[in-house]
Amino acid sequence: MTRALFVIDIQNDFTEGGALGVAGGARVAQAVTDHLGGPRAVDYDVVVASRDWHDGNGDNGGHFSADPDYVTTWPVHCVRGTPGAEYHPALDVSAVDVHVRKGTGEPAYSLFEGRAEDGRSVPDVLAEHGVTEVDVVGLATDHCVRASALDAVAQGLRVRVLTDLVAGVAPGTTAAALDELRAAGVETVTAGEAS
Length: 195
Ligand SMILES: [Zn+2]
Prior knowledge:
The protein is an alpha/beta fold and 195 residues long. It has one domain (3-133, 142-156): Rossmann fold (3-Layer(aba) Sandwich). Helices cover 27% and strands 21% of the residues. It is built from five helices and seven strands. Strands 4-3-2-1-5-6-7 form a seven-stranded mixed β-sheet. The longest helix has 14 residues, at 141-154. The mean pLDDT is 96. The structure holds zinc ion. The site of zinc ion has 6 residues, from loops.
């Protein structure tokens, strides 16, 4: 068994005070740091963290809108090179082995849509490490965590979402996303249960 951790989009724009701030985002940043460094830390073989990484020019394939519907169009967020695109300061990135960027010039919700800084695809990174299982944490439960976990299942991985290390945009869509993930075969457990 080889297990990876996916740390999804724990960026300033997705935490309190950001362009698309999720309530609980800063708490998740600190909790993920604690999960990686704490006494009961799961021993991950590889830690992969994603960032939404949009162009500052243009609408990134219709992803940005001045009149967003918050379903498929959004206010400007996570423009590469700006503070909003950086990891939240409470996230200890020293534990991250592979940094994935996604969404440059296009909408991208799943970590699998991105690439490592050296250009490798996510499936290539996972194959190099022989990853068979993955835990997913980060933001937001009802959007990028959902999409990343579903893609991980589609890749044939055994997937857990750690429910106290994620936060969602809205309660209804978050509950629906967790139901959808469980129906797809994803385990939903707390970090303590995962240890
Ligand atoms: Zn985006």
